[in-house]
Design brief:
The chain is an alpha/beta fold. The chain has a single domain, classed as TIM Barrel (Alpha-Beta Barrel). An eight-stranded parallel barrel has the order 1-2-3-4-5-6-7-8, surrounded by eight helices. It is globular, with a radius of gyration of 17 Å. The model has no long low-confidence stretch (mean pLDDT 95).
Length: 249
């Protein structure tokens, strides 16, 4: 069965647009967990555009499900109050860290790591994260075959960037993108890695991905899930996504 981790970034975006404490990220986590979410994901960025360090600390103090922190491992502390990804992870010790090569100018993550280029920079950072007790997953493009290289760096999982697949699915031409996801998933599993997936997954495209590229250990879903929740309610929406994940054995 694929585990569902609910990304709460968009809850923080809405709160930050008004100021104050509402909507409450911690309360949203409680609702999602009560509705069946297997984990909670956040992606704090150095510009604090949505999830902030205080949210990370508050979630870590209350969560009894898996906590997944995403971020750029090369992002250092800054004057905005961002302590650096590694420092934040070492402070709260989440179950999983998903490393993503996003830049400050990106609206959202839009590509995976170039392992050939970043290999030696990643190696000591992965070791440090592993030493904190975190499972380490690397964000990779569909169609890439870095499995053996990633395993050699000490990471335990990949997360397939599914944005292109989701766009192709919406256009009614998903076969090639699905094949790329399946290729990367098979390559990773052959190297002994587990496979996660995330980005633009929704109730329309999730089942097809799980069927074609499975077994998928975990999907992280935020933007589409929160969009659906605006109309159907957060608890019911989490239950629907959870049901889709439960189809895969």
């Amino acid at each position: 069965m694929t585990r569902l981790s609910v990304n709460l970034n968009k809850i923080a975006v809405l709160r930050n647009s008004r100021g104050g404490a509402l909507p409450d990220v911690v309360q949203a986590a409680r609702v999602a967990i009560a509705a069946g979410a297997d984990g909670i994901t956040v992606h704090p960025r150095p510009d604090l555009r949505h999830i902030r360090p205080a949210d990370v600390y508050a979630l870590a103090a209350m969560l009894e499900v898996e906590f997944n922190i995403e971020g750029n491992p090369f992002a250092a502390a800054n004057d905005c109050g961002y302590p650096g990804l590694l420092e934040l992870v070492e402070a709260v010790r989440p179950a999983q860290v998903t490393l993503v090569p996003d830049g400050d100018a990106q609206i959202t993550s839009d590509h995976g790591f170039d392992i050939a280029r970043d290999r030696e920079r990643l190696r000591p950072l992965i070791a440090r994260l592993r030493a904190s007790g975190a499972r380490v997953s690397l964000f990779v493009d569909a169609g890439s075959t870095w499995g053996a290289d990633i395993a050699a760096l000490g990471a335990q999982r990949i997360e397939i960037y599914t944005g292109p697949y989701a766009h192709a699915h919406a256009a009614g031409a998903a076969a090639t993108a699905l094949a790329a996801c399946a290729q990367t998933a098979a390559d990773a599993r052959a190297a002994g890695l587990a496979v996660n997936a995330g980005h633009d997954l929704d109730q329309h495209n999730l089942a097809d991905l799980l069927a074609a590229a499975g077994p998928i250990a975990e999907v992280s879903i935020g933007h589409a899930l929160i969009n659906d929740a605006l109309y159907d309610g957060l608890a019911d929406t989490v239950r629907r996504y959870r049901a889709l994940c439960s189809v895969q054995k």
